[in-house]
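Catalogue entry: protein

Sequence with per-residue tokens
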Amino acid sequence: MASILSEYHRFLIQLSQQDVPDDVRRLAHLISRHLQPLAEVGTARRGRSVRLAPLSVRQMADMPVAYDGNSDAPEVGARLGRLHRLEVGPFRGFMRQEIFDLTHDITLIYGANGTGKSSFFEALEIAMLGSISEAQLKRVEQRLYCNNARIGRHDAPVLLAGEAHAPQPVQSDESEYRFCFIEKNRLDDFARIAARTPGDQRQLIATLFGVEQFSEFVRGFNPSLDPDLMLTGPMAAQLVERRQQVASSEQAIAAHPQKIIDIELQENALAQRMSPGATYQACVEWLEGTPLQQGRQPYVQALLDAVPPPVYGITQSQLETLLNEAYRLQAIWQEASRELGTRATEVSFAKLYEAVQAFAVDATTCPACGTSLNAVAEDPFARARAGLEALAQLAELQRREQSLRAELTESVRQLWEEMRRTVTAAITACPETLQAASLPVLPSASVGAWFESWIVEDRQAWRALLNIASAIEQVDAQSRAILDQRTALTQERDRLIQFRFEIERLRTQRRAADVEMAASQATVNQFNENNRELLEAIAAEEPLIQLNQRIKAAYDGFLPELQRYMAALPGILLQGLGEQARSLYNAFNRSDAPGDLLHALYLPAGC
């Protein structure tokens, strides 16, 4: 056991220099503190793991990380120097004390079986190492192993070494004197090392140098500690079975964040189409409006829903044209009237002409005397036609005067109609201007001399009417501009409606996702409420599971480190030993010829 302890502490020293997790160091220190009970069992029936797992659960978290040395190791004393004397007995095969002189360079112990040769070497071993490997191998308590069989007790052997004039008792130190004892059987097996498998070769080297116990200790660790750890809680496993009932709800809850992300990506893309650089919420507020500001879509829709502004078609030039035409026709009519006025006493020549024409149609006798027209000296009808030619001109003049009067009347009526339209339009288009003009009252029909009141006082009323027409023209220009904008507004409205549809679609998706999330959460909450006690049990076992998972990770990191150390140990032990063995051999055979002495010795370090 001492060799295991000392070698394990050397492993701890090396582990402290490696870059490993802290839990690996904690587990290594835990094993160091319980080395004895752990070394007693191996891999059979998972004996080592069965002991290590509960120890780790209880103590690993409290283990130190830093290695502070082996407090149980003996204090380092003076160097051994030459051995002088061994005082042994009662001890094993010695019933009484025996003193052996060891001052010679070579001491040869020989004798028959049972004379105490092995006891002598075991006395040396316990004096120098503090333990006897045979006792450990046979799992016999060292105190009982050292007792003399007859007297049932023993005294600790005393080994003196140092200066010849003042030898001192040797203080046992396994790490210092571990290579002082090599059994014959070990040498015999080592001589045939080349015929062994690589694994056996490493074991032989370990046996040769007395570390077979440590090698056996390393092999006693199970490959995994998992079967002896609680890596998954039984309560959690039970909950998993029950959770299948709400698996779809949990999937919906898990998928909800990604759904929201996808919706937000679509919202941002829509915002960039609506107004690059603006946020989605700002675009929604601009489109739909807020309690403090009207949205663009309702504003545009209101413009389109409003009654289109009328275009009155009233112009100053139209009024002036109608007035000038009336004046022109009046002048022509007055001229024709004057011609007819000079002949005002005459009958209506036109009607007379028509009457004569009526008698002359198919007439054969004179209308006055009844004489046949063939017998009269002058045809009265021919004479009448000659006289009536002059009357035809007067009839044409009368007809022209009547036509001009009709045209003048129609022209004045059209002027009246346009003026009436102007005044009527002004009532809605520019009521203030109309009121300020104080225009004369237009009659209900174009009769009489109604226009005279419009041209008195240097046409003041007429000019006021023209100013009103000018104001109506401005209103018409604005109305035409608004009507021209309706096409663009219609296109904008259609585009805004499409944006609104997309916003509503995204809003519906978000609302549906939130409704699904709420329903799923309610289902899960109800499930949690129904399984409250089970969830509390799971919460209670969760720290233990986490601790067991830490232990698993620590063990999975610790065992490879220990195995690597063991694999490299033969090479470490053999460093410099070949030179020492060569010197010892040559010292034993110092009387041989120089050619028989060893020049160099290389010991195998395993494969």
Summary: Residues 297 and 495 are 9 Å apart (CA to CA). The domain at 78-172 is CATH 3.40.50.300 (Rossmann fold).
